Amino acid sequence: MIDHEGIIERIDGGVAHVRIDSQSACAACHAKGACSAADQGEKFLDVAIQGESYNAGEVVRVEVSKHLGFKAVALGYIYPFLVLMAVLITLTLLGFDEMRAGIYALLSLIPYYLLLYLIRGRIGSAFTFSIKKTITVQ
Fold first, then answer.
1. What is the pLDDT of the chain when averaged over all its residues?
2. Are 92 and 98 in contact (CB under 8 A)?
3. Taking CA 78 as the corner, what is the angle to CA 114 and CA 45, rounded to the nearest 5 degrees?
């Protein structure tokens, strides 16, 4: 399982709106201003509540199975890279100059990401998150 700590912002009829403070691995580094450690930010998830009762402001663990994490990486990075490379290689072999082949290869990603956007509901229903109460030690 992949898990992150989050805070429940509000609860609307069986769905918890959870805020996750996302930080890259190097966000705490003293030299982060000199590199590209700009992955800090808040992310929001809607998670169906099952079983237990939760309250706004409660700290929880948001979990998703690892294979769904790999699926997200494939959809967002691996498949577009393969599309880009296939178009680039095909156009180069067909005799297009490198600049034109590169531009067309980059433009080929527009339909890919447009398709992902259009089927986002179907994709989103495949990604199921769960939340668990955190154990606080006093």
1. 82
2. yes
3. 65
